[in-house]
Amino acid sequence: MARAGLTAERVTIAGAELADEVGLDQVTMSQVARRLGVKDASLYTHVRGLEDLRGRIALLAADEKTIRIAEATSGRAGKDALVAFADAWREYAHTHPGRYTATQTPIRIDPELAAKAPGPRRAVELTYGMLRGYGLTEPDLTDAVRLLRSTFHGFVALEAAGGFAHERSPRQSWVRALDALHTLLEHWPPAREGDSA
Amino acid sequence: MARAGLTAERVTIAGAELADEVGLDQVTMSQVARRLGVKDASLYTHVRGLEDLRGRIALLAADEKTIRIAEATSGRAGKDALVAFADAWREYAHTHPGRYTATQTPIRIDPELAAKAPGPRRAVELTYGMLRGYGLTEPDLTDAVRLLRSTFHGFVALEAAGGFAHERSPRQSWVRALDALHTLLEHWPPAREGDSA
DNA sequence: AGGTTAAAACTAGAGGTCTTAGGAATGGGG
DNA sequence: CCCCATTCCTAAGACCTCTAGTTTTAACCT
């Protein structure tokens, strides 16, 4: 029987495609094997198991998303950068729902593998870079980054879960949310007594 | 063999407990049956299947969370109410991680069953009520509600996924995020040209 | 009390999944 | 050309979901 030419990467990509098509929890070893024209057991040469595969999909997605954001924000500053960053984030979640879902799973990723992935560190740099123009300093900077990431992630997650059943289109709320966040970053409230606790 | 006295509700609760203990995706028919001292097949008298059980857990969680929030915000207004609301939300996610995860799944819930659940409607009322003091009007009100829900959900989701690896404690960032959101609600930016698109 | 009956729980089994173990083919390096 | 590490396979065990058909239970009725 001719070799299929599998690699860990090809298996991961097949899994990611499957995730986007039928949902992350429909990604099984068997399905991925079938898609690659191979028996289930053959995958275990390249991937430790289902958990490992899921982790690799998550890492792939994180990298891809970071790249999109980097492209989108390149050369922009201030609110332009904020909107480009956020739109790229949401766009990725929309076009790759399965991959995006994978990024939400608690980190059960092989640490050694994770160390090789450029995504996370780069993502952090991008976010801090985007906020540079607002003149925040630590620890406000970290807090602001966390607030932004929370809002972006929360919005697309709720959107995907069907949480916005209301009349008003999510798109409109999204635009207004970005307006609001921009305003907020420009007028970031000073820490008050007791906030260091 | 003596009857176990199962009901759909008892099965759901067993599933919810299991979810909190070992994670939602470890909740299987077999495990739930084992916990109840019953054979797998017996569960199908009370619950349509695994999907259905998951949906019921999600509904249970939504109701419980809403109740906690209602209790916490009762009698409060303004920033007090905002903080109580948010803290109750986060607290629920922390103490019931499996149940909370269940609420994130896209709605595959039996519509008939969902109609009976008081949670969702009540949750919406609570949120709008909490914002009453800020003097917002539609459609800003809807946008603000969506922003808050996104941020709350996003924060606890990232927290649970290990997304806040930084030095600074999530608790501190949470407190500051609430400060920031309060400020934002007090100075909600007016809609600009083109925002209705 | 005893008999009837609907529901609850069981046994059996088909079909799917994950994973390990060990055997056979393949193709690149000596 | 042949070695042999790697790739892919078959086989098999354990577990899972769900359906069908059967037995047991408890509640109701006279």
Detailed description of the structure:
The structure is a homodimer of 197-residue chains. Chain A has helices at residues 8-22, 29-36, 50-73, 78-95, 97-103, 111-116, 119-131, 140-160, 170-186. Helices cover 65% and strands 0% of the residues of chain A. Chain A starts with 7 loop residues before the first helix and ends in an 11-residue tail after the last helix. Chain A is elongated, with a radius of gyration of 19 Å. The mean pLDDT of chain A is 91. In chain A, helix 4 runs antiparallel to helix 9. Chain A has one domain (8-186): Tetracycline Repressor, domain 2, CATH 1.10.357.10. Chain A is built from 9 helices and no strands. By secondary structure, the first copy, chain A, is an all-alpha fold. The first copy, chain A, binds a DNA duplex (30 and 30 nucleotides) through residues 1-6, 28-30, 38-42, 44-46, 49-50. Chains A, B: Residues 5-65 form the HTH tetR-type domain. Chains A, B: It holds the Pfam family TetR_N. Chains A, B: Residues 28-47 bind DNA. Chains A, B: GO terms for molecular function: DNA binding. Chains A, B: Keywords: DNA-binding, Transcription, Transcription regulation.
Write the layout of secondary structure elements.
The structure is a homodimer of 197-residue chains.
Chain A: H1 8-22, H2 29-36, H3 50-73, H4 78-95, H5 97-103, H6 111-116, H7 119-131, H8 140-160, H9 170-186
Helix pairs in contact in A: 1-2, 1-3, 1-5, 3-4, 3-5, 3-7, 4-5, 4-8, 4-9, 8-9
The structure holds a DNA duplex (30 and 30 nucleotides).
Pfam families (chains A, B): TetR_C_33 (PF13305), TetR_N (PF00440)
Protein name (chains A, B): Transcriptional regulator
Domain HTH tetR-type (chains A, B): 5-65
